[in-house]
C-alpha cells in the first residue's frame, strides 16, 4: 500500500487505487467522448477505475449527464468543491482532492497530451502519474453503435459524390478547363456542393480534397481554382457524422476528358496496389506489411519513390492507411516501429497513392471493417477511374 | 545566465532566452492558429522569442508553411531530427534539443493545457518552465483581419435567420405545435436549414440552439422535437467562418402565436437589461460590473435568481457575456475574480437571460466591438420579440 502525501493529509492508510484519468471536453478530446458517450462543450474530469466509469459534471450539465452519459457514476462538481466564493481557484483544488479521496485513488494513468498544469499541481501534491501512449486501446475495437455511425457517414457521402460527378459530366471543356453554367468549375465550388449536401445529411466536412493537375500531385493540397480538364482529379472525402461523431473516409478518381497515358498508368498501378492491400486485410496481419506489399507492387510497376532536386517528395510517400473512428486518423496505424497487428473490430483505410509533378496524383481509398476472418468494405462506389467525355 | 543541463550537454555557456511555447494543431489549439495564421491538421511546435515567431514544419507542410504562415521563420523538422530510422522515438527528442539549441532557449512559458508528456520530458532534461494562464493575452485585441472574419460570420447568420422566421410565419398552429408542409416543425428541422444555409455561406455551425417551451428555460438544451406554439423560442446562433475560423454569436427571440403575459414580462426585462449592458460597453469598464448592473435590473424587475427544490437553477444564472474570436468563449470574461477591464479591440457578447420552468426562457445577445470610446454592434437584426400570428 502506497502512502499518499500532502493531497490526502488524513488518508495515509486509505485503500489506494489506480485510475485512467482524462480532463477534457468532448469537442477536443475524443477519449472522453468515447469513454462517456457524452457530448459537452466544456472540459470535465473522467476516470476509469478497473472498468468503473466515473465522470464529474458541473451544475449546468449534471442533469443531462445523469440521463445521457454512459458511465457508472456522475459526481456533481458542486458536491466536491469548496463553496467559499472568496477562494479564487480553490474549486479545482478542492475538486480533485475530494474526488480522489472519495474513490481512494492515488495513481493516475494519463496520456502524454494530459494538461501539464493539472499534472504539475497533482504531482506536487503526492499523486503518482504513469504515462501511456494510448489510454484507451479498446477504442480501436469498434462495436455495432460505432459501425452504424461510420456507415451513416459513408452512406451520406456515397449519395452525394455522384452529384459532383454529374456536374462534371454535364459540363464542357474550354481552354483546358471545365465550363458549367456560365463559369469555370472550381475545387471550391465542388467542395461547397459536397459539404452543403453532407450537412443536409447530418454530417460535417472540413478540408474535403478536390484537386486536379499538379495540385493532385501534392497530397496535402485540398485543391483551389479551376479544375483542369484531361488530368486526374482526386476526390478525398471524409465526412463526420453529427449523430455520434464518427468519421468515414473514401477517395475516388475522376477526369473530365481523357487523361494522358502516363496518368492512366499511374491510376492503374494504384488501383492494383489497393486491391492487393484490401486482399491482405484480416486479423493477425501486420498493417505495415500491407504497406510494404503495396509499395513493392508500385515499385515493380516502375514507380519510384524519392525526392526531387528541390527536396520535394514524389512516388508513394505516405502511409497505406490508418484507423478511423472518433478521430479521422487513429489507431491502428501502419507505422514501421509500432505494433500494428490487425484485430477483429478494427476500422481502417487502405489508400495507396502515387504523386508526380507533371503527371498528376492518384489515390484510391476505402474504409474497411476487419471481421473475424477478413474484412467488409464500407464503400459501395466502384473505384474505376471515371473518365467523363 | 542560467545553466542548461542534460538537454544541452555542450552548451553550458550559450546565450539563453525565454520563449512562449506551444505544441498543437491549428484545429484543436487556437493559440497556434492565432500565432501562425497557418491551418494544419497535425500538431507542430511554435515559439515566440520576444516577438520573433518561429514554427517547425514537417516535410509535407514545409513548402506551404513557408508561403502561408505569418511567422518570421519556418524551420524544417527534418533539419532538426535524427535521420537514423532505427531510433524509434529519437526524432522528437532530437527535434526539441536542436530547436532550443539553435535559438539558445532554456526557459519555456506555456499554458496549463500544454501536453504533460512533453513537459515532463523537457523538464527532466533541464528546460525551465513557467506557466501562464493566457499565453497570448494579445489575442483579446482584434485587428481588421479578425474583425472582417467575424463580420463575415455575422452577415451570413443574419441572411439566414429570416428564413427560419419565414418558415414559422408560413406555418399554422395545430394542437399547440407548429404545422408546416405536412408535418410538425421541430428544432432539428430548423437547425438543419440554418446549418446548411450557413455552410453555403462558408460557415460551420455546431449545436445551434433552437429551443421552445421549457427547453428554452434550460440554457444548455439545444432543443429537440416539435416547436411549441405560444412559447418563447430562443434562437442562439453562433456560426464559425471557414475563411479565417472566427466565430460570431447572436441570440434572438421568436414565438409562434402570442406568448403568456408572464413570458412577455420575462422577455421585456431581458430586453431592458441587454440595452443597459450594451450602453455600458466601453474601454475601462469592468466586464463584471456590466454583469452586476444587468443582474440588478432583472432583480429590480422582480426576477429572482436561485435554485428550486431539485437543486436546478432559475433566474439569471449565467454570465452576462464573453469574448469572441477563434474560440466562441474566450478572453475577456465577465468573471468575478479576474481582471476584466474592457479594452479597445475587444470583441464581446452581451447576453442577459432569464429562465423559469413553466414560463420559459429569454435571452438576447449581440456581439460587440469595443472601440476607443464606446462600441459597435456587429448585429443589424432588430431584437424585438418576433411574435408571429
Q: What features would you describe in this structure?
A:
Two copies of one chain form a homodimer. The first copy, chain A, is elongated. Chain A starts with 16 loop residues before the first strand and ends with a strand. Chain A is built from nine helices and 24 strands. In chain A, 46% of the residues are buried. Chain A folds into two domains: 6-135, Creatine Amidinohydrolase, Chain A, domain 1 (3-Layer(aba) Sandwich); 140-388, Creatinase/methionine aminopeptidase superfamily (Creatine Amidinohydrolase, Alpha-Beta Complex). In chain A, helix 6 (144-170) packs across helix 7 and helix 8 (261-280) runs antiparallel to helix 9. A six-stranded mixed β-sheet of chain A has the order 4-3-2-1-5-6, with helices on both faces. In chain A, strands 11-12-14-24 form a four-stranded mixed β-sheet, with helices on one face. A three-stranded antiparallel β-sheet of chain A has the order 7-8-9, with helices on one face. Mean pLDDT of chain A is 92; it is low at 1-6 and 86-91. Chain A has 389 residues and is α+β, with helices and mostly antiparallel strands. In chain A, strand 20 and strand 21 (360-363) form a beta hairpin. Chain A has helices at 30-36, 59-68, 77-80, 90-103, 116-124, 144-170, 187-200, 261-280, 287-300; strands at residues 17-24, 44-49, 52-57, 73-76, 105-110, 128-131, 172-174, 177-180, 183-184, 203-204, 209-211, 233-237, 240-241, 250-256, 306-307, 313-314, 322-323, 330-333, 347-350, 353-356, 360-363, 366-370, 375-377, 386-388. Chain A binds chain B through residues 27-28, 41, 59-61, 63-64, 85, 88, 110-120, 129, 131, 192, 195-196, 199-200, 202, 204, 206-207, 219-221, 242, 311-313, 318, 336-337, and chain B through 27-28, 41, 59-61, 63-64, 85, 88, 110-120, 129, 131, 192, 195-196, 199-200, 202, 204, 206-207, 219-221, 242, 311-313, 318, 336-337.
Amino acid at each position: 500500500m502506497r502512502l499518499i502525501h500532502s493531497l490526502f493529509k488524513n488518508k495515509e492508510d486509505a485503500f489506494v487505487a489506480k485510475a485512467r484519468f482524462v480532463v477534457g471536453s468532448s469537442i477536443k478530446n475524443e477519449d472522453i467522448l468515447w469513454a462517456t458517450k457524452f457530448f459537452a462543450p466544456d472540459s470535465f474530469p473522467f476516470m476509469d477505475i478497473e472498468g468503473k466509469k466515473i465522470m464529474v459534471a458541473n451544475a449546468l450539465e449534471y442533469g443531462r449527464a445523469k440521463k445521457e452519459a454512459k458511465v457508472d457514476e456522475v459526481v456533481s462538481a458542486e458536491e466536491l468543491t469548496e463553496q467559499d466564493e472568496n477562494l479564487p481557484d480553490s474549486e479545482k483544488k478542492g475538486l480533485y482532492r475530494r474526488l480522489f479521496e472519495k474513490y481512494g485513488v492515488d495513481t493516475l494513468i494519463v496520456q502524454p497530451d494530459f494538461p501539464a498544469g493539472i499534472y504539475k499541481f497533482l504531482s506536487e501534491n503526492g499523486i503518482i502519474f504513469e504515462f501511456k501512449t494510448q489510454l484507451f486501446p479498446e477504442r480501436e475495437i469498434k462495436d455495432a453503435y460505432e459501425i452504424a455511425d461510420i456507415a451513416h457517414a459513408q452512406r451520406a457521402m456515397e449519395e452525394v459524390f455522384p452529384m459532383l460527378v454529374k456536374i462534371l459530366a454535364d459540363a464542357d471543356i474550354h481552354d483546358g478547363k471545365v465550363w458549367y453554367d456560365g463559369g469555370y468549375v472550381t475545387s471550391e465550388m465542388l467542395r461547397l456542393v459536397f459539404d452543403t449536401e453532407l450537412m443536409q445529411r447530418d454530417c460535417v466536412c472540413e478540408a474535403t480534397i478536390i484537386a486536379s493537375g499538379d495540385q493532385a500531385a501534392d497530397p496535402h493540397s485540398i485543391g483551389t481554382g479551376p479544375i483542369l480538364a484531361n488530368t486526374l482529379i482526386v476526390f478525398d472525402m471524409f465526412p463526420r457524422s453529427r449523430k455520434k461523431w464518427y468519421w468515414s473516409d473514401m477517395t475516388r478518381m475522376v477526369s473530365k476528358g481523357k487523361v494522358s497515358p502516363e496518368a492512366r498508368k499511374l491510376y492503374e498501378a494504384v488501383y492494383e496496389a489497393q486491391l492487393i492491400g484490401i486482399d491482405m486485410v484480416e486479423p493477425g496481419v501486420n498493417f505495415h506489411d500491407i504497406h510494404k506489399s503495396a509499395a513493392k507492387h508500385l515499385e515493380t510497376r516502375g514507380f519510384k519513390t524519392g525526392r526531387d532536386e528541390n527536396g520535394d517528395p514524389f512516388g508513394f510517400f505516405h502511409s497505406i492507411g490508418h484507423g478511423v473512428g472518433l478521430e479521422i486518423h487513429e489507431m491502428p496505424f501502419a507505422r514501421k516501429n509500432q505494433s500494428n497487428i490487425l484485430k477483429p473490430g478494427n476500422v481502417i483505410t487502405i489508400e495507396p497513392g502515387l504523386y508526380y509533378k507533371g503527371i498528376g496524383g492518384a489515390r484510391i481509398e476505402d474504409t474497411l471493417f476487419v471481421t473475424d476472418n477478413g474484412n467488409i468494405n464500407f464503400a459501395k462506389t466502384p473505384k474505376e477511374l471515371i473518365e467523363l467525355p
